[in-house]
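User: Second chain of the day. Same drill as before.
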Amino acid sequence: MFKDFFNRSSKKKKYVTVSDSKQNEVPAGIMTKCPKCKKIMYTKELAENLNVCFNCDYHLILTAHDRINAIADEGTFEEFDKGMTSANPLDFPSYEEKVQKDQNKTGLNEAVVTGTAQLEGIKYGVAFMDSRFRMGSMGSVVGEKICRIIEHCTKERLPFILFSASGGARMQEGIISLMQMGKTSVSLKRHMDAGLLYISYITNPTTGGVSASFASVGDINISEPKALIGFAGRRVIEQTINEKLPDDFQTSEFLLEHGQLDKVVHRKDMRNTLANLLKMHQEVNENA
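Assistant: Same format as last time:
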């Protein structure tokens, strides 16, 4: 009897654990972990810092509406074509269900939000891609919405800013998706021929057909620090050329060094940088 008692006592844990029910008392979304340094931060404080990690300065995903709030004068953003949604032109299996899932998750109808806004009193057209929706992939609706806002800017003689964030063309729409590369580029050419400013603001990641079309043809090309920018993936390129690529290959800093970007801008400087560019070009246009 005593032997069994002591055996059981020796097996008792010498520390206190928190039960699963206690661990689950923290509401979802209160804390966010940095994907790079793994530091855990309060989501609200991180949002106030424009989703830039306090510890390692990593730029986390910023939603389309968070960017709107960051660079538009309060109450000036007017959204275009909000109700436009994707069809399934190729009858791709489960495509409608995947689109519906992303609509429910993000509150967006598609991977881009377009419209007009003012920044320090200057009106401009803008498109914000959101990588939470189908990884920001470019389908027919994304291309159509971008073309419509560009055409509005051309007609109304407005500068245009586009924030790209995309994995490339949307595979579920096949060649129809690839057609958007030429379609958007033609709209931008008309905007350029009218003597109007186009600022391409490239964010992480911008790859595939988006990087090879409208994201790379700005009058001014800007990016955020350490953003992944490129057409094909690193492994594909290395296997094709049979060479090892630099560690910083396809980063915004690499592109800046090789003349493919005009400036790498920290997110805290995003608003002031854009405001200054709009003011500079507004003065040129008014004096022309």
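Strands lie at 31-33, 40-42, 78-80, 112-119, 122-129, 160-166, 198-207, 220-223, 229-230, 263-264.

User: Great, on to the next one.
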